[in-house]
Amino acid sequence: MALSDKSDPDTGDGDQNQGPVIRDNRRIDPETGEVRDPEAKKSEEAEEDEATEVEAEVEDIPEIPDTPESVVSEAINADERVVELTNDIKRVQAEYSNYRKRVERDRVAVREVATAQVVGELLPVLDDIGRARDHDELNGGFKAVGEALEATVTKLGLEKYGEQGDEFDPNVHEALTLVPVPNISAQTVIEVFQPGYRIGERILRPARVVVGEPMGDESETAEAAADEPADSTEDGEDKK
Q1: In the chain, what is the greatest distance between 2 CA atoms, to the nearest angstrom?
Q2: Domain presence at residue 196
Q3: Is the pLDDT of residue 3 over 80?
Q4: Are 20 and 3 in contact (CB under 8 A)?
Q5: pLDDT digits (tens, 9 = 90+) for 167-183
Q6: Tag placement on the chain: N or C end, fewer CB within 10 Å?
Q7: Beta strands 173-181 and 207-214: pairing type?
């Protein structure tokens, strides 16, 4: 049996906290009387030292403190704030998108109004060109100028409308007179005095037309009335 003193190899000072270590180096176990195995003894001592070191390392691990309720509450409030800010950003983006659409719509409307005012002043000139074409007087240089003017206003969106046979629409036609016409089921344009013009949905001038009115029941009544005298005459002749 020997006394061993563990000391620091650098300082030479002993471990004051642990104290001297007593190791039993006797080959015969005094309790059992058996011969000891030095290798087994060393293995047991190594396992004991390793277990001691592991326990020391476990003791050195700092404990994780419990999370305070205030920290958890702040984290929850932060998440709610993030959601709220995200919704605010989406709302601002939607408002900005609607604003852009409204500005673009207003820009188109302003451009259409300005174009309508300019082109509206040219309608009498277009009427003269149309009348000259109808009388075969659109010739030479006047023809080239007239066709160029018509092409330009068409490019600006001007549309001419009002043709014979169109169904009468009081929103775009101006009826100068009504004429009873047989064999039609709805009011129909039968003559155009002056064509109409529009830009998009904006009517610059309604078409002035003569409207054919369906005769309908009136024609049947007239036919029935025309048949009655003949019947009465026949009855009178029979009576005579």
Answers
A1: 173
A2: yes
A3: no
A4: yes
A5: 999 999 999 999 998 88
A6: C
A7: parallel
